[in-house]
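Worked Example 4.2. Read the sequence first, then its structure tokens.
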Amino acid sequence: MKLIKDKKFLQNVAQYIDLTNTIGGGVSQPIIKMDKREEGAVLRVMLPGVEPEQWQVVVDRNTVTVMALHQNENNPAMQAPLFLHNFVLPPLVDYSQLSAEFKGKELRIMVPFLPKGPRVLDIDYRY
């Protein structure tokens, strides 16, 4: 295997590959972290160069889909995904209380847990 010894060529190619990987339709490498707390968890997603308006979070049953979309300036109806990831949540999550915020340079999705312990149900009496 021959090594390319021209450092200037390698620097130019590396910049081009990185640019085309993130802007030209490639995939950016996100950083995903899950912070578990007693009352719930926080899902943190960081993706360099993505503006807050480009993020979208969709909840469907027990699945949270997080995506970042690139919109064509000439044709706003055309969108290309920069990032798309599905997270399957466990049954102990209070799905009605899920929320998302963009803080600093990261998207945060708050995933609250259901209260622990037994729950007493109200009985509907019908005669």
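Now turn to a second chain, presented in exactly the same format:
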Amino acid sequence: MRILITNDDGINAPGLVTLEAIAAELAGPEGEIWVVAPAFEQSGVAHCISYTHPTMISQMGERRWAAEGSPADCVLAGLHDIMPQKPDLVLSGVNRGNNAGENVMYSGTIGGAMEAALKGIKAIALSQFFGPENASLDNPFESAAAHGAGVIRQLLDHADWGETDDYALFYNVNFPPLPAEQTGGMMATRQGKRPTSGFGIEAQTSPTGRRFLWVRGSEQAVETGAGTDVSANLAGAISVTPMRADLSDHSAVAGLAKALVK
């Protein structure tokens, strides 16, 4: 198997080390693992592409590249410039922190997987929820490291990939904030939304009198309802959420058409 991996935490992120080990287990001794990751952290860039300026890329080793751009840029670089053949699978992560609930909309990890799906390549985003039970472990990515390959194998063997649809499916996997041995099974989930305020702004004035704004998050360990990704993670399960690069509310189209008739 030929696998392209990327992330949004950067080429030196510990979660990328975890993902490389997962990819090596999946690819086997005859497989290929290609790494194209951002040179610097790109958290929160979503599906951004560097449309208005060029992206510098640097080779860091055999089949290993760093790009001064977003995760989606990295996927584009891998597919169209670096790799001699297209990959069988694109993996994005393992993100430091969850990409469940409303976090999905901001996530560069999701953006990398989405770009691969738009190109017709099977793609999975993987993220590790952090909490008091795992943040202080020697390896806080322990749950993802132990269970990641098994989850991916099940998706490759049994999941629907929507390959004949306009927008192919990709999958968002979040590992719970627990040690590996306390991690439960997998749950098929939908994206939740925390009832908290989400991202906000904190203003500060520098010693030189200039005003700066810091984006801050909110509490993550908040229930989002039965069947959702966040609640599954908080219950100790691995959430697996099918997604598409299609923001249309299909259930609202018919009603809108009637409302627009004059």
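Notes for the reader: The chain has one domain: 2-194+222-260. The chain has a mean pLDDT of 97.
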